[in-house]
Amino acid sequence: MKDISLAIRNILGLLLLSLSIGTVFAATPEIELIIKDHLFFPATLEIPAGQKVRIRIINQDPTPEEFESFELNREKLVVGNGQTVVFIGPLQPGEYPFFGEFYPKTAQGMVIVK
Amino acid sequence: MVNSINRRSRLVFKAGLLIIVGLPMSTQVQADGSAVDKVYHPYVDALESEIEFRSLFQDGPSAPNDFKQLHQFSFGRSFGQALFAEAKVVGEKSRSGNFDIEAFEFELKWQQTEQGEYSADWGMLFEYEQEFSEDVQELTAGILVEKEFGRWSGTANLLLIQEWGADIKDELETAVALQARYRYTRAFEPALEIYAGQDSVGIGPAVMGSAIVGTRKSLHWEAGVILGVSSDSPDSTVRFLLEYEF
């Protein structure tokens, strides 16, 4: 029983420690990416090398879409007529393609890092 | 502000390490199993369900009651943007003989930070296990942390495990799983994994990958060979995982 109470105390401690890091906001440049008619606007995003960027994805379609990129190591769902954010970078110069997993034939784009 | 976040991240990481490293010195525990499982990533994909099959094959000397094969079948789905719940059935084939369905498990993963927002990404894992044929329960809580280094991703799972019941000695255990993964292509990502528990330490290579098989449908696979590096560890543990996400 002593072990169990010790375990519960440790579990609560882990929980509080982990929650505490989610309460701080970081100032990061933001750019907007619109989804409309299953297309990304703009289809090309230019960002500076070595800089973290927040992409605010605004879905103007009534259907959900998912921003996905293996090259950027990101996968994020945005509900229909909703919005979400994806953080990318700091990145090396280069081209990083992304696509919409629900409509991959039309929803395609590229992050160009200069 | 960023420095403040980094200080907090370092504080949480150090506290987690302190708990994991410090507890084995303060508790008397018995050897009762391998630490090899899989490495959990601290991310939840909204509106996703998955069916997963996981297998472990142990070889070499270990405690007599250790399994030789362990198979898990599970179904899981996400709830909102940050929670993923999974129910599992676990079967074992022991060295002495038969394959039996041994336990069920319920698991909850909780994504704590947005991927890439801070210097590292954080999540939590909770798991409850109940054996069918014996009065043995197990409760696990842990911290999941991942950090990108270019095309490399480093992941750590720091787990605290409480076992209790009439058929087991109440004990508190700790376990650590580490993975360094190179994101080479979607279908092929080589990795190095380390697993450490109360009575086993293993290290070995793993490969993993995914394939898109339909509109928001994908297959994910993992395979690894973990070699024991302590006298109480199994000589080798081979692990496989196949997951259908939809």
Give a short summary of the structure.
The complex is a heterodimer of chains A (114) and B (246). Chain A is α+β, with helices and mostly antiparallel strands and 114 residues long.
What does this structure look like?
The complex is a heterodimer of chains A (114) and B (246). Chain A is an alpha+beta fold and 114 residues long. Chain A has one helix and nine strands. Chain A has a single domain, classed as Immunoglobulin-like. Chain A has a five-stranded mixed beta sheet with strand order 3-9-8-5-6, with no helix packed on it. In chain A, strands 2-1-4-7 form a four-stranded mixed beta sheet, with no helix packed on it. In chain A, strand 8 (94-100) and strand 9 form a beta hairpin. Chain B is mainly β and 246 residues long. Chain B has a single domain (2-245), classed as Porin, CATH 2.40.160.40. Chain B is 10% helix and 58% strand. In chain B, a hairpin with a 6-residue loop joins strand 8 and strand 9 (189-196). Classes of the chains: A alpha+beta (114), B mainly beta (246). The A-B interface holds A 1, 3-4, 6-7, 10-11, 13-15, 17-22, 24-28, 52, 54, 64, 66, 70, 73-77, 84-89, 92, 101-102, 104 and B 1-2, 4-5, 8-9, 11-12, 15-16, 19, 23, 27, 43, 45-48, 81, 112-118, 122-124, 139, 141-143, 148, 150, 153, 160, 162, 164, 170-172, 183, 185-186, 212, 215-216.
Number of helices of chain B: 1
List the uncertain runs of chain B: 1-6, 15-31
> From the alpha-carbon coordinates, what is the Rg of chain A to the nearest angstrom?
19 Å
- CATH superfamily membership of chain B: monomeric porin ompg
**CATH topology-level name of chain B:** Porin
Q: How many helical stretches of chain A?
A: 1
CATH architecture term of chain B: Beta Barrel
Number of domains of chain B: 1
Q: Strand share of the residues of chain B?
A: over 45%
Topology pattern of chain A, helix = H, strand = E: HEEEEEEEEE
CATH superfamily of chain A: Cupredoxins -  blue copper proteins
Largest sheet of chain A: 5 strands, mixed
Task: Compute the CA-based radius of gyration of chain B.
Answer: 18 Å
- Briefly note the structural class of the backbone of chain A: alpha+beta
Largest interface: A-B, 41 and 48 residues
Strand order of the largest sheet of chain A: 3-9-8-5-6
Give the overall shape of chain B, derived from the CA principal axes: globular
Residue share in helices of chain B? 10-25%
Structural class of chain B: mainly beta
CATH class of chain B: Mainly Beta
